[in-house]
Write a structure and sequence with these properties.
single chain; 289 residues; alpha/beta; Rossmann fold; 11 helices; 46% helix
Length: 289
């Protein structure tokens, strides 16, 4: 009985922590969505939009792709180009887990064409509304943005051909549930293509203790081997680590609401190096049998 009681207490603590993480992440990305519209014009005037485009190129987007999507949909929050990774074809149904302001959805839209469909799911209502505005302004007719938790998505079973995600799964407390959802909504033979941040070694304690650092894609990241194992464990086959590269963590640390919001006014060069050596950007594909 005592063991069961202890397990129940641990489970409750984990649930409370997961709820707090989700609350912080939603609040952080709501803030980003609200700031993005007002700051876009000033970025253009100051020439900072060029820096945004340069960051997108580093993630793997071409000039043509950057110009093709509504400019206000590109918030520079990803770590790869899952649309190119997925080899999307005309007529397919594509789901973007964590669609944000819709950048990858708009790129996928042209690939699936009028006979296809793109669904973008995001937990943050402000992001969904921003994506819908971008969609209306751009005249897109084959995209459906939905608000929902990626651990329980508002998408039917075996409905989509392709699931993509760009630097979002690391934000989710229960990654196994998220990948189970991706597996559930995918048709047999469907494809998974994700870009994400993982770890080569454990993060320093001052980062791990920082709930706010979830927003900057650091605290929620897990070890690379564990990430791949979770994808395999939910049923995916032909799981391939297509590419991996060092990620510019300085942009995560200082340009978003990350560790600077955790009571650490300054991060020493040694601490920054420790974080940089721990973080990796990966691109993974898999198939549902």
């Amino acid at each position: 009985y005592l063991m069961m009681e202890e397990r129940g207490l641990v489970g409750l603590m984990l649930t409370l922590k997961e709820r707090e993480i989700k609350r912080v992440v939603k609040a952080g990305y709501a803030r980003i969505a609200k700031q993005a519209t007002s700051e876009y014009a000033s970025r253009c005037c100051l020439g900072e939009a060029d820096a945004q485009e340069e960051m997108s190129k580093r993630m793997g987007y071409t000039d043509e792709e950057i110009q093709a999507a509504p400019p206000e949909s590109n918030l520079g929050l990803g770590c790869g180009n899952p649309v190119a990774l997925a080899s999307i074809s005309e007529g397919e149904i594509v789901l973007d887990m964590g669609a944000g302001a819709g950048f990858d959805c708009f790129l996928a839209s042209s690939r699936v064409g009028a006979s296809g469909k793109v669904i973008g799911v995001d937990i943050t209502s402000e992001m969904v509304e921003k994506a819908r505005v971008n969609c209306r302004n751009g005249g897109y007719t084959n995209i459906d943005f939905r608000q929902g938790d990626l651990e329980n998505m508002p998408v039917a079973d075996e409905y989509v051909d392709v699931v993509i995600s760009n630097c979002v799964i690391n934000l989710i407390p229960n990654k196994r549930l998220a990948f189970r959802e991706a597996f559930r909504v995918m048709k047999p033979g469907g494809r998974l293509a994700v870009s994400d941040v993982v770890l080569l070694k454990e993060l320093p304690q001052f980062v791990k203790n920082c709930t706010e650092a979830y927003i900057s894609c650091l605290s929620g990241a897990i070890m690379k081997e564990d990430y791949i194992d979770i994808i395999k464990s939910v049923g995916f086959r032909d799981v391939r680590l297509v590419a991996e590269s060092r990620f510019p963590v300085e942009s995560l640390i200082f340009e978003s609401s990350g560790c600077s919001a955790c009571g650490d006014p300054e991060i020493t060069p040694e601490q920054e190096k420790e974080i940089r050596d721990s973080v990796l950007s990966i691109k993974v594909t898999a198939v549902k049998p």
